[in-house]
Amino acid sequence: MTEKLAILHTNDMHSHLENWPKIRRYINNQRAKLEADGYQVLVFDIGDALDRAHPLTEATDGQANVKIMNEVHYDAATIGNNEGLTNTHSQMDHLYDHANFDVILGNLKDLKTGEQPHWAKPVKRIVTNQGTRIMIMGFTAPYILTYPLVGWNPIDDQVAIPEMLKQHTGEYDVLFMLSHLGIGSDRANAAKYPEFDVIFGSHTHHLLANGELDNETLLTGCQKWGHYVGTVKMELDDEHHVISKQASVVKTADLPALASDQAEIDGYEQEGEQLLASRKVAKIDHSMKKDWINGGELSQIGLAAMKQKANTKAAMINAGLFITDLPAGVVDKNQIHQLLPHSMHVMKTTLNGYNLWRLVREIEKNKRFLSRFPQKGMGFRGEIFGKIELSGIEYDPKNDLVKFDGQVISNEKRYEIALLDHYLFVPFFPTVSIAGDNYMYYDQPLRDVFSDYLSVQFPLTSK
User: Fold this and answer.
1) Is residue 218 a part of any domain in this protein?
2) Domain-embedded: residue 462
3) What is the CATH number of the domain that holds 330?
4) How many domains does the chain have?
5) d(C-alpha 219, C-alpha 100), whole Å
6) Residue 391: which domain range?
7) Which residue from 71, 67, 72 is spatially nearest to 50, judged by alpha carbons?
């Protein structure tokens, strides 16, 4: 007699709650149908369920997302970089306080204690109704540059996986990996570790509509933003050996909608915006207009805020970051969130004079191209890169000279400039990553740095 397992799975929803009513309904209905057909059903999420670009996520530090996820009773979830890196250590410690599902994560430790985070298990064991021992492992992309800045020590998956396989040898009949590592890593891990029956994939937003069989390991991927929901069906013999496995997806857009869905979706947005709007920041006596091509006051305030945060005499920002205008009057957190929704941080970069000159030449070379360059990915949510604005740095093209704080730079002297961590990862300014001594301020996103500065320059109450 064969045993039948079915696993429903989501990944990389990124707070796209406009798809959630359909996803919730599909998972709950499909679970019931599969169980009626004799399947034992599990439900997994593979990370990046939340994204602070959504006002409700921002207002609740992601806890609203967890409450929403509770509605489908996931059996296991792992984290993505959006959970792990856009929350502070304290926020992460409380993110899953009210979760009704287990978080599985085997390659992240507390930086201070070296211990497993209290909110996650390294593995989960499930014994099916017919006695099959299932083990679930979870791994997230080990960003070694940034996780330590929020108090976590990421372990390379090529260190963590073999150690965990050795530790749990003989303890399972079926082995699953929840992988927020990306399709390249999933393929490599399938080739190296055939012990995994299924690797549920995410992070690189890939779509494997019918799965992919690599070295007898089945790989999955449901693209991004809740556009798809995946299903894996498996059959096992009476000795708990897998005899078949197949993957499929459904397109969320093709699922039936209810009249009540839009009101629910709008409700999430409105609740988040109301919570943020209740947090007042400043009172400005004139409107501040975005100007992606020419720059302007918003950019100047951003530069001043960055210099203050990094304690530097110079800064650089691109005007395309500022998505909206700020009208005259009281400014609240919701307006600031709409202005700067990006997951970016201030970074102090130290360069010697020669390399600062080189960076300025890179800016000069690229500035016209970038002024209208459509910018997508890398956590950026604007339309174009926009004008590059500098404070404390001047360039004399006639004599090819750079001035820092009014003085011509010396090749050997070292200079500090406030940048954004975004510039470390985009390809336009290679000097930053090649020659820069870079320190990222991960305690606050750029919008909070901007907000704090604005609140001092334009206080809510006059002195």
Assistant:
1) yes
2) no
3) 3.90.780.10
4) 2
5) 26
6) 280-457
7) 67
Reading the block at residue 242, the tokens are 């897998």
Domain annotation covers residue 114? yes
The tens digit of pLDDT for each residue in 269-312 reads 999 999 999 999 999 999 999 999 999 999 999 999 999 999 99
Residue 259 in any domain: the answer is: yes
Residue 47, SS3 per DSSP: coil
pLDDT above 70 as % of the chain = 98
Rounded CA separation 296/276 (Å): 26
> Looking at the predicted structure, is the pLDDT value of residue 379 above 70?
no
Check whether 463 has a pLDDT greater than 60. no
How many whole angstroms separate alpha carbon 52 and alpha carbon 61? 8
Average pLDDT over residues 219-224: 98
Report yes or no: 42 and 8 within 8 Å, Cβ to Cβ: yes
Closest listed residue to residue 218, CA positions, set 181, 187, 249, 184:
187
Residues in Cβ contact with 135 at an 8 Å cutoff, skipping those fewer than 6 apart:
123, 124, 125, 126, 168, 171, 172, 174, 175, 176
Considering the domain architecture, whether residues 103 and 176 belong to the same structural domain is answered as: yes
Q: Are residues 250 and 292 in the same domain?
A: no
Strand locations in 252-362 (E): 280-284, 315-318, 329-332, 346-352
Average pLDDT over residues 228-243: 97
Count of beta carbons in the 10 Å neighbourhood of residue 348 = 20
Q: Check residue 268 and report its DSSP letter.
A: H
Q: What is the pTM of this model?
A: 0.93
- CA 44, distance to chain mean position in Å, is 18
Q: Do 260 and 308 sit in the same domain of this protein? A: no
Same domain, 137 and 14: yes
* Residue 161 neighbours by CB distance under 10 Å: 24
